[in-house]
Amino acid sequence: MIKRDSDRCLFVLDTNVLMHDPTALFRFKEHDIYLPMIVLEELDAGKKGLSEVARNVRQVSRFLDQLMCDADRDEIEAGLPIHPLSEYGRGFTEAPTGRLIFQTELLGSDVTSVLPGTSADNDILGTALGLQRREQPGGRSVVIVSKDINLRIKAAVLGIPAEDYSNDQVLDDADLLYTGMATLPEDFWEHNAKEVDAWKEEGRTFYRISGPDVSDWYVNECLSLEGDDSFEAVVREKRSQSEAIIELTEDYRVHRNNVWGITARNREQNFALNMLMDPELDFVTLLGTAGTGKTLLALAAGLAQVLDRAHYREIIMTRVTVPVGEDIGFLPGTEEEKMTPWMGALMDNLEVLTQTEGGDWGRAATNDLVRNRIRISSLNYMRGRTFLHKYIILDEAQNLTAKQMKTLITRAGPGTKIVCLGNIAQIDTPYLTETTSGLTYVVDRFKDWEHSGHITLLRGERSRLADFASGAL
Fold this sequence. Notes:
By secondary structure, this protein is of the alpha/beta class. Helix content is about 30%, strand content about 20%. It has helices at about 15-20, 35-45, 50-65, 75-80, 85-90, 120-135, 150-160, 190, 265-275, 295-310, 335-340, 345-355, 360-370, 400-410, 440-445, 465-470; strands at about 10-15, 30-35, 80, 100, 140-145, 160-165, 180-185, 195-200, 205-210, 220-225, 230-240, 245-250, 285-290, 315-320, 375, 390-395, 415-420, 450-455. β16 (about 390-395), α14 (about 400-410) and β17 form a beta-alpha-beta unit. α6 (about 120-135) packs across α7. The longest helix is centred in the first third of the chain and has 16 residues, at about 50-65. It is elongated. The two termini are about 35 Å apart.
């Protein structure tokens, strides 16, 4: 919801807001919404196709049609009440009570002296300026809501208040995002030693901790002790706000505990492998900059659990197909062949994981075995599917919206594990930011669930060149 004071406002919506979130019509609480006619024209032009934007536009049209059901001309001019219907309002914290007002008269103000041209943005600005003059003095504040930064800059030039649409913003600042780790103070045991019970179960070491520090922990959060590199644990259960059970983690930095030949190189990677290898965790998210080992760790854990432990039947790897530069056009072949150019990271990591001592013949045999258990799928064909006993790796997840992320995760059937990888500092999808990315959304929403885990990888381990470039460029 747009953050405003208690005075009622008249919000003029830009087309891209509705294209981004069809439920935006129901997100403005007691405030009124004004739709310029040019917005309806742009919605009509954008309804064709099978893209996510086209689907959103068609959903907006259905919402508007239901709100206008049996309304006459006078009711439309007065403004249609935005009904808090349950089919629209699932998950809304507050039911809308404002009105939806369509443009029924020419309100355009002449802005050509300041902004030359007759673009749709200038039409919206002219309409907002006309509304502002009609409402002042003493009337409602007229505010433009747009995802377009340039439109907001133009509005500021004309003296019209303009804001970004922030309802889909998970956090106020990406720095507040849950990291999956907590560092305990050096004197932690001094304050908690009297309230600690310790025991071993099937070779695993557990502690029952009581005290005020427990209240800030989440289930499956990773704990380390400041100044003590040997203590690494994970929260297994929170029995109350003052009591929790933690378990010492497996040390995957030693070669005897390697995962498909891979060992952890730092504390965060060790935490990540503990989560990836835990069959009780159905959903794991790994965040980190380039070179922190996200894909390699996820793939190694997948191969170990598919081929060695038989926890899952096969690995399915997918990613969002957003090009970095100019699109190279249509790709020939089957679905898997079309996805191959996007899976360079998979091939690079497989080259590392399939290095064997059996010579060329041994490497060829290992490659055939591994590739037969890995499938490459496109996100475009996920709707309606159910994955049973699969290990799913979603790469570049920061480019997904919250709605797309929900569509993918709800495909999981019994025995399936989903691993989401991404770097929220490298978002290529238009109108997505660090605070509105689907990856940020699921990290925040899943942090309280006992069958999910998250870790933010901090240190690059690719090469000294890559590490220097990440910090210096």
